[in-house]
Write a structure and sequence with these properties.
alpha/beta; HAD-SF_hydro_IIA; 13 helices; metal-binding; seven-stranded parallel β-sheet
């Protein structure tokens, strides 16, 4: 089969299964200079690297391919994420980590934001805001007492200098945070920004944890207005690198595990797309999308499908011999 990946053909959402061999892997590698990887589900799962992923990642780097890890994880800073990646065996620098929390901080800096931020989310958002000189309130750990809810709301402290509400994954989400965020957002001048809108992420077979999208949707429902979303699938997360020419879309491959975030992101950016079956979406999901009559779902169909990233590894080694 001819795997010459022309831009014209690729962005029709082919969903072709790649059965690696020396010939088609060579053709695949000749089509791009840069690879943007999703993290969890592609390179690692929670705190463990997926089998062969680090060797494949590093072998591709050794062949001269530029690499970025693009993640919607907003609980950790890019510095901490790069340390995690290095610990798991991936050769990547801090400036090659693209996170939704970092993108949110850049969005605020580009707007010359000079007030305080109320965060519904994790430490990663706070750390990234601090790196660009933006103050935020301490992460809210208060809880609501059921028998005195109205009284407690009346006594809540609201900082008059808060000019934005930032929402991401928050494992300690509660009524206090939802209430404070919605009250701050009653002022139409208060910015509403979100790291990402991932609905859920797997923690085990048939076990999923609600994602940041659940938190965002809850606050949006009360605030009655949508946020600006900074992470995938928004191209904003890497738009600065495309403007600078560091990433050239027509020479870039997006490798993801989730169709509605990673593959949609690749489509939005004009990248080639490869879905691996080690995370959220499966080949069955690809086939369902291809059969769907929904008008925009084709944007989430990958150009190619591969069961796991490490399936490429034997053919990378053969190129180096």
């Amino acid at each position: 089969m001819n795997f010459a990946l022309s831009r014209k053909v690729l962005h029709m959402g082919g969903g072709r299964v790649l059965t690696p061999n020396t010939f088609n892997v060579r053709q695949l590698l000749n089509t791009f200079d840069t690879i943007v990887y999703a993290a969890d589900g592609v390179l690692w799962r929670h705190e463990e690297a997926l089998r062969g992923a680090a060797d494949t990642f590093n072998a591709l780097r050794g062949m001269g391919k530029n690499a970025f890890i693009c993640t919607n994880n907003s609980s950790s800073s890019c510095r901490d994420l790069s340390k995690k990646a290095n610990k798991l065996g991936f050769m990547v620098a801090e400036n090659e980590i693209l996170s939704s929390a970092q993108a949110l901080a850049r969005f605020m800096r580009e707007r010359k934001f000079q007030r305080k931020v109320y965060i519904v989310g994790g430490q990663g958002i706070k750390d990234e805001l601090k790196l660009v000189g933006i103050d935020s309130l301490p992460l809210d750990m208060a809880s609501m007492q059921e028998n005195s809810m109205a009284e407690q709301v009346q006594k809540m402290y609201f900082d008059a200098n808060v000019g934005a509400v930032a929402v991401g994954m928050d494992k300690d989400l509660n009524v206090v945070k939802l209430t404070k965020a919605s009250i701050y957002l009653r002022n139409n001048q208060t910015l509403f920004v979100a790291t990402n809108r991932d609905r859920a992420f797997p923690v085990a077979a048939d076990r999923h944890v609600p994602g940041a999208g659940v938190m965002v949707a809850a606050i949006e429902a009360v605030a009655k207005r949508p946020p600006f979303t900074c992470g995938k699938p928004s191209p904003y997360v890497c738009s600065h690198l495309m403007r600078q020419g560091v990433i050239q879309p027509e020479r870039t491959l997006m490798v993801g595990d989730t169709m509605y975030t990673d593959i949609q992101f690749g489509y939005n950016c004009g990248f080639h797309t490869l879905l691996v079956g080690t995370g959220v979406s499966s080949l069955k999901d690809v086939r369902s999308a291809q059969a769907s009559k929904q008008p925009m779902v084709y944007q989430q169909i990958p150009d190619l499908y591969l069961p796991r990233l490490s399936d490429l590894l034997p053919f990378l080694h053969s190129r180096n011999r």
